[in-house]
Design a protein that fits this description.
Blueprint: H1 6-10, H2 14-30, H3 35-48, E1 52-57, E2 61-68, E3 71-78, H4 86-100, H5 106-118, H6 125-142, H7 147-167, H8 173-194, H9 200-208, H10 214-225, H11 229-265
Antiparallel strand pairs: 1-2, 2-3
Helix pairs in contact: 2-3, 2-5, 3-4, 4-5, 6-7, 6-9, 7-8, 7-9, 8-9, 8-11, 10-11
Length: 266
C-alpha cells in the first residue's frame, strides 16, 4: 500500500475529513462501539491529518467540530440503526489505523467505509442458529441440567435465533425481542407438558441468554466511569429496556398459561 505524500496531505480539505469522520462515527455506533471510543477514533484521525477535532457522541447522534487551515466546520451526524457487529468494528479499527498512518487517502477511506457498512455477516445463518442453541445448552449444562433439559434448551436457543431473524426485518428491535421472549417461554411451557420434571425457568433463561444486554451494560458502565454520563445513562437505559422487554414477553405467556390452568380446574 502506497503511503500518502505530504503534498497530498496539504491538499486535504476540511470537508473531505468531515465526511470521513461522520461516516466513521455512524458505522461505529451502529455496530455497538462505545461513545468514548468513537470520540477517541475521530480525534486521532483529525490529529493525524493536521486538524483539531472535538466530538461529543451519543447513541443517537454525534456532534463534530473540525478546525484547521483557516476553516471550522460543525457537523451533526444522526444514527438511526443500532446493533452489535464485532466483525465490522474490527474492520473499522483496521481502516482507522491505515488512515491515521496516512497509508490510505481520505476519499478512498470513505468508499471503503461504505463497503464495510454494507458488508454482510461472514457467518451463515445456520451457524447463528446453532450458536444460539449451543449457548442455551451450555448454560443449562452448567446449572446441572439433565439430558432431556439439555435437548430442550438447545431447541429453545435455536428457536430464539430463528424468531429474532424473522421479526427483526426493519427497525423493530424491541418488538422482535418481545415476541421472541413470548415464543421461548411458550416453548418451555409446552415442553413441560411432555416432561413434567423439567425446570421451566431454567429453560427460559437458557433460551434467551443470547439476548441478554451484556455489551450495552458493559459500555454503559465504562462510559459512566469515564464521566461520559449522558451517553452512559442512555446505554444503561437501553439495557434496562431490553431486560424489561424480555421480562414482559415471558410474563405475558406464563400469566396466560396460569390463567388457562386455573380456568380448566373450574
Amino acid at each position: 500500500m502506497v503511503e500518502v505524500s505530504e503534498t497530498a496531505v496539504e491538499r486535504i480539505s476540511p470537508r473531505s475529513l468531515v465526511d470521513l469522520l461522520a461516516e466513521t462515527c455512524r458505522v461505529a455506533i451502529e455496530c455497538g462501539c462505545s461513545s468514548n471510543r468513537v470520540e477517541l477514533l475521530v480525534t486521532r484521525l483529525g490529529e493525524a491529518w493536521g486538524f483539531s477535532v472535538d466530538a461529543a457522541a451519543l447513541p443517537t447522534a454525534v456532534w463534530l467540530s473540525v478546525r484547521g487551515r483557516g476553516h471550522q466546520i460543525v457537523e451533526l451526524v444522526r444514527v438511526t440503526k443500532w446493533g452489535i457487529d464485532l466483525n465490522k468494528l474490527a474492520d473499522l479499527n483496521d481502516l482507522v489505523d491505515q488512515v491515521a498512518s496516512r497509508q490510505l487517502h481520505l476519499d478512498e477511506a470513505v468508499e471503503k467505509l461504505k463497503t464495510i457498512s454494507l458488508k454482510p455477516s461472514p457467518y451463515p445463518r445456520i451457524l447463528s442458529i446453532t450458536a444460539g442453541g449451543g449457548s442455551a445448552f451450555a448454560l443449562v449444562a452448567a446449572s446441572n441440567g439433565r439430558g432431556h433439559e439439555l435437548i430442550a434448551a438447545f431447541m429453545l436457543g435455536a428457536i430464539c435465533q430463528l424468531s429474532l431473524g424473522f421479526f427483526s426485518e426493519g427497525n423493530r428491535r424491541y418488538l422482535a425481542e418481545f415476541f421472541t421472549a413470548m415464543l421461548v417461554a411458550g416453548g418451555a411451557a409446552g415442553l413441560s407438558s411432555l416432561w413434567p420434571d423439567i425446570n421451566v425457568p431454567r429453560l427460559i433463561v437458557g433460551g434467551l441468554i443470547s439476548l441478554a444486554p451484556g455489551l450495552p451494560f458493559v459500555n454503559a458502565m465504562h462510559e459512566v466511569a469515564q464521566k461520559n454520563l449522558v451517553s452512559g445513562a442512555a446505554r444503561l437505559l437501553e439495557a434496562v429496556v431490553t431486560a424489561i422487554t424480555l421480562a414482559f414477553g415471558v410474563a405475558a405467556v406464563l400469566g396466560f398459561a396460569h390463567y388457562l390452568e386455573r380456568w380448566s380446574l373450574h
